[in-house]
Amino acid sequence: MSINSGDYLLKVLDSLSNPYRLKIISILYEERKYVSQLARELGISRPLLYLHLQRLEEANLIKGDYEVSEKGKTMKYFEVNSFNLTLNPELINILANSLTLKKQKEKD
């Protein structure tokens, strides 16, 4: 994973700013899992889990693939992508100019 823009850096940092998402990465680092396994292990609903998984996928920290089980059931497995995040002032300085800043409306 290469962080090549300020906006992408913010996306990665935002996706890592939740304890469930950190736990998901920890679990998937040990072994890939399908959604129901992850939900049971974390003690959360599958819809809530999917929200967390989506944020991690958007930041390219994990990936999911569908597989068909021996019983013919389609299951989505997730695994962690390899990444190494080195955050320092130099990186922030390099990427700061590429940030998309939202302009505030001027008060009349």
From TrEMBL:
This is Transcriptional regulator, ArsR family. One of its GO terms (molecular function) is DNA binding. It comes from Ornithinibacillus halophilus. Keywords: DNA-binding. Residues 11-88 form the HTH arsR-type domain. It holds the Pfam family HTH_5. It comes from the Bacteria. InterPro entries: ArsR-like_HTH, HTH_ArsR_DNA-bd_dom, WH-like_DNA-bd_sf, WH_DNA-bd_sf. CDD domains: HTH_ARSR.
